[in-house]
Amino acid sequence: MAPSMSDVIHFTAVIPAAGIGSRLLPATKAIPKELLPIVDTPAIQYLVDEIVASGISRIVFITAKGKEAIIDHFDSAPDLEALLAGRNKLDLLEKVTAPTHMAEYVAVRQERPLGLGHAVLMAKKVVGDTPFAVLLPDDLIDAKRPALRQLMDVYEARHPHGVLALMEVPDEDVSKYGIVAGHMLDDRVMEITGIVEKPSIEAAPSHFAVIGRYVLHPDTFLHLERIPRGAGGEIQLTDALAELVRTGKTLLGCLFEGRRHDTGDVFGYLEANIHYAMKHPDLARKLRASLPEWLEEPTL
Ligand code: G1P
After folding, report:
1. Minimal-distance CA residue to ligand 1 atom 13
2. For range 157-184, the mean pLDDT
3. Which of 59, 85, 130, 271 lies at a C-alpha separation of 20 to 30 Å from 138?
4. Is 297 contained in some domain?
5. Atom of ligand 1 nearest to the CA of 236
6. How many domains are there within the chain?
7. How far is the CA of 197 from the centre of ligand 1 (A)?
């Protein structure tokens, strides 16, 4: 049966983009890491594409001082547009104007760097009392069905208090992520019974790591307001989710289908560039021809 209008959930998407990008310094000294290009497109544009392809049209950017260029990328640029139109560069004009019309954007500044949980809490007033998605810009996920949409499908089918993207990681990576405990409900969906931020391998409850896609119930904000500072002296989203589970609410994990890159890391950033370049026929042909040669002779 087709959903009635009252069944349709109008999600808002939140992109916390206030981090300093320390793993990519010095590239991120003056340029927000979210604007570094993956091939020819700023990394954050891939997230906006994923959000829009998932059916969400309202996006909140959580930014910080020095990150104004992120908002500029999604705003109109009248001088540049007039120049491109005057030169009849219509394909470029389309690329420049497209992001402006894709969604409704709201920017909120995080005054102090108090962690991911605090950044998400900054969106509370804009999100209001509706479910919302959180997408971390370091995590790019290329998937046939957008990863966020996969999580929204689980949320809409099972009505939990939250759905988190999960991926199995090796021993050496466990301490970089939020790690969950739980049991599988089907091939892809896990009921989460516990979650801990960046545990040691000895303390980790599993190898299932949270990747930067969340679909959350607005109650999450209440927990974010109450929890004390956690790992690194920061307000952790993971701790608020742990509270949610402790109070008996259902939190699910979704082993999403797709390929994920950590673009906040130099190697992950390089890999993402190669992965997305290989999707352009012309670049793919050139890379196939030149990469083997470079790999054999890495120095001048
Ligand atoms: C954040 C979250 C962590 C999650 C990770 C996914 O950590 O705190 O729980 O597993 O993103 O990329 P960060 O990478 O910001 O340190």
Report:
1. 177
2. 97
3. 130
4. no
5. 8
6. 1
7. 8
The CATH number that applies at residue 78 is 3.90.550.10
Name the closest-CA residue to atom 1, ligand 1. 177
Q: Is the CB of 212 under 6 A from ligand 1?
A: yes
- Residue-number span of the structural domain to which 255 is assigned: 10-292
In three-state form (DSSP H/G/I as H, E/B as E, the rest C), the secondary structure along the chain is CCCCHHHCCCCEEEEECCCCCHHHCCCCCCCCHHHCEECCEEHHHHHHHHHHHCCCCEEEEEECCCCHHHHHHHCCCHHHHHHHHHCCCHHHHHHHHHHHHHCEEEEEECCCCCCHHHHHHCCHHHHCCCCEEEECCCEEEECCCCHHHHHHHHHHHHCCCEEEEEEECCHHHHHHCEEEEEEECCCCEEEEEEEEECCCCCCCCCCEEEEEEEEECCHHHHHHHHCCCCHHHCCCHHHHHHHHHHCCCCEEEEECCCEEEECCCHHHHHHHHHHHHCCCHHHHHHHHHHHHHHHHCCCC
| Whether the CB of 238 sits within 6 Å of ligand 1 | yes
pLDDT of residue 57: 95
Q: Given the CA of residue 209, which atom of ligand 1 is nearest to it?
A: 10
Assess whether pLDDT exceeds 90 at residue 70.
Answer: yes
**Would you say residue 38 lies in a domain?**
yes
* 284 Cα to the center of ligand 1, angstroms: 31
Residue-averaged pLDDT of the chain: 94
Tell me the per-residue pLDDT of 114-163, one tens digit each, with 9 for 90 and over.
Answer: 999 999 999 999 999 999 999 999 999 999 999 999 999 999 999 999 99
0.70 exceeded by pTM: yes
**Banded pLDDT at 299 (limits 50, 70, 90):** low
